[in-house]
Amino acid sequence: MMGASPTADIRQTDPLAPANIILFLALLALMPLMGTLFGYGSQAEQLPIVERLRDPNFLTGDFYVNSAAQFGPRIYYAHVLAWLHDILPLPLITHSLAVLCNFALASVTYYAATRLLYTNALGGLLAAVFVVTNGSFSLGLAGYLRFESFQPANPAIPLALIGMVLLIKLQPFWALGPLILSALAHPLIGMEIALIAYCAIGLSILLRPPEAGVLRSFAPAVVSGFLFAIAMYLVWILPMSGTNAIRMSDTEFFETLAQFRSPHHYLGLSFPQLSWMQALAFVGCAGIVLALHQFRHGFSREVLALSLAALIVLALCAVSLWFVDMMQSRLWVTAQVFRMLMVVKWVGLLAFGWLVADWIDRDRLAGITMAGCLALATADAQPYAIVFALISAGALVLGPRWVSGPVWSVIRWAGLGVLILMSVAAQYRYGLTQQSLRALLALAALALIAAPRPGKPIGAALATLLVAVTLTTTALTREKGLWGLNALQAQLVWADLTGDNFEISRAASELSPPDAIWLVPPDFESFRIISGRAIVVDHTSIPFDDAAMREWRTRMEAVHGPINSGGFTALREMARNYRNGIDWIAVAQRYGADYAVLYAETPWPGAVLFENSSFKAVRLNGPEQ
């Protein structure tokens, strides 16, 4: 009802009891274990740092580990994992922490949806489902709210969002704890979300003064921001002030990190047009829903703050197109502001949770259909489902004004059918099956818990049983995937890392002494942690110290030849050069390499120490050469 107070509390009539809400959030936190990853991607470059902190003699001949184990952006995260690894196995640590972070992310999402957007419990839980199970649009390939393999971003994101919510609720000193912890885990995410949150809350106080008044609300936020800045100076800026003796120019830094290593993260003007369209569709729909919320519930300061946070991120991304792509500013490259699209995504998913719950209240069938489409159309398919859902919602509101009776019933059913078909088509073309299966499990568990029936503990017990059986079954069949589905394959422990690349990595530990240095293909970042042997260089593992970053680029070109392209194109070009063969002996002498992993088809005149269908291990010097 227009003009109704945003604090009109419908939560008291929610059928979901607090215990069931907590139960569902806990079950939801476990669902990403279905198809989870261990030892892949960014985790493969972070785990060797953990091992070095535990054992100073680990991979002393590895250039990357020597640099990354010094004070840098991964160091606090690595120290925590190293301390825990002295007590527990590393896979158990990472999966347990991932579940804990999932629970924190789901909980802060539920809280924000119900206390900032004033949706009911069902809307909050649906928003949590969207956030935990659905990656949504992929513009920039970094603005995700959760990552499959546990890494510094996993704890940093929910902690930063908790801090943001506390700031919006005018609890700036309570917000300091989670914001500082977030920045310790991941300085870029923690600091930037904190900056965005402080700016958004400051503007919201000025534009929509709270009852306590502008000064009494604004001053604590300023003091909190000042204390946060002092903390960042003490834990990051001061310790790093003497670590970068050599400083790259803006141009060299840009060419190395943004242009050569990761243009898919930094160069917005080179992002695929389709990715831009999908992101803009999401943003446009989120804006419409937030405006509708304000129209329905009054001009809320909390929603204003969330909207301002999203607008700040969008403005930063727009400015980044100039300062990164055109001006090649080191400061803006370092900021990687497209990663902050996670804030826009989170605010939008909160709004969609409110919208779907509102429709379930007014038209149960339509609302449930929309909820299913928004949850099950995943990744880059979700923006399409959102557009279709909003069109359907508009048609359901306006249609009865022009058509009534049986004709309208037919049109209504047909419209919902079209919504389902279009969402399925989008999912088939752009979605991720793994995320859809998790969302399906989440919706099934939520239906069992939330369905109105006598004896609700039965529903909760059935939901728990469903999740337990599903996770157990998929864990037991994780090697090939339940029913042969690749989406349900998972890596939970070291032994699950199988394939020719892992086989030859394990063989390397038997073929060479602990101090051996290996040449490997450019995308072989997992080799060092699996084999326990040093490597000359790989594409994924890039140090952030300027001198080391320059050396990394030099090594990449020395091993894989001069490369004129960047990103994934450069990676394919380097792999092709390595496959065709390089001057192995010259590179080995330059970097002290003793052995090499070659592609199986790469010519090699000497003896082969080990071989499988994809790779072979050779010695670059000595009698076996």
From TrEMBL:
Ranges that cross the membrane: 20-40, 92-113, 125-145, 157-176, 188-206, 218-238, 274-292, 304-324, 336-356, 368-398, 410-428
Pfam families: DUF6798
Ranges of residues in domain DUF6798: 508-559
Cited InterPro entries: DUF6798 (IPR046477)
Keywords: Membrane, Transmembrane, Transmembrane helix
Protein name: DUF6798 domain-containing protein
Organism encoding this protein: Ruegeria meonggei
